[in-house]
Task: structure prediction
Amino acid sequence: MPCCDSMNSPSPRFYSDIFNRVSSADRFLTVDSSVMNLTTSNDGSLARPQSLDADGGFRKYFPAETNTITKLSLKWFGTTIEDYPYPYVIGKLCWEFPAMVPSDWEANNAHGPNNPTTVADWKTALDAAVLKQGVFTFIFHPHGWIRPEQLVEFIDYADGKYGGKVKFLNFRDAQDRLDRNLLASRPLRADNGQDNGVRLVDLNHDGYLDVISANQQFSQTRVWNPKQSKWITTGFPVPLVTQDPQGNRQESGVKFGIVHPNGHISALIRDQAVAKAWSFDGAEWIEDGPLLNGLVVDGKPVLTATGDPVRGKRDRGVRLRDLDHDGRCELIVGNESQNAAFSWSEEEESWKPLSYALPPNTSIVDAQGRDNGLRFVDINDDGYDDLIFSVYRHAKNLAWLGTRLELQSHQRPA
Result:
């Protein structure tokens, strides 16, 4: 997005309503770099120079106050990720390559144009990216904020210190490598730009992302073995996306979450035709039927989706989230007729209803299965999910601050 290094231009709706769409000419995007990666002194994996410890990392590039040099305050700049120089997926279809702080504009705003500190900090950030085997997405402009010879100095540093360990790639080259080596040549987006049924999930709780590729043509689970540096492959029991007769793809209704104490991933789906659940045992998916036990609201079963590929699938607002920070997910359902939250009992092998649910007159999806404007986000930075609810039908936005025990403990205008 324009000016992503100086303003909060890439909103969540940019990804859902713009980036993930397919144009009338059947064109679509696959890579974005609108989120800034902030290297901080909290990253325990780095052997940090003293200057990084002294100023808390590169937070100096987000100044709160203006002065004769700093013309724009970045006190409320929020489109950042910290200490994560890796591509990641947004909205199932977008590869986000976070851009490295500082951009040349951020440096110019913090300490003036062409400052040697900018190049020194780029070198430090590159060292961090190399140590973490990540990426350094470089933002610079032809506006006099950095001189060409300073860019050459940085390139010479990378080449002289790391040689072939550092490769300069454009986004097409970078995505080609991801598609080939990570996704086994099955990209996030199908040929028509829609969901290809590819998901990145840490299946066995080892800290490494694994890959599920499951549509009506192909079904595979790829588990990364870090000790042997190779993929271990197995199948996946059900498609993650289905196609209608016109070739349009839609999610089948499979929901993932950590339910059991071993930390491995479980998956469940329930619609009018299918009611199945599985858990990953470290090598393959094992049927886990009890994971559907207890999912009833007012005598009616909780469904993850309704409809069929011909008439169209509808999301029923089932989400698995860890609400109480015990390392395992609770199950929430929020649609036009069901509003409940459940906790899994390992002893009874059943879901048990909790004493709270979503706030009144809110839901995750509407009756047509469309996004209804409810978001889980930690507003007050206390580590627990809060709720924001914002839809065009309401005169104002609402927010609820959550606690460990209750989602709707406080209500206030947003």
Confidence is low (pLDDT under 50) at residues 407-414.
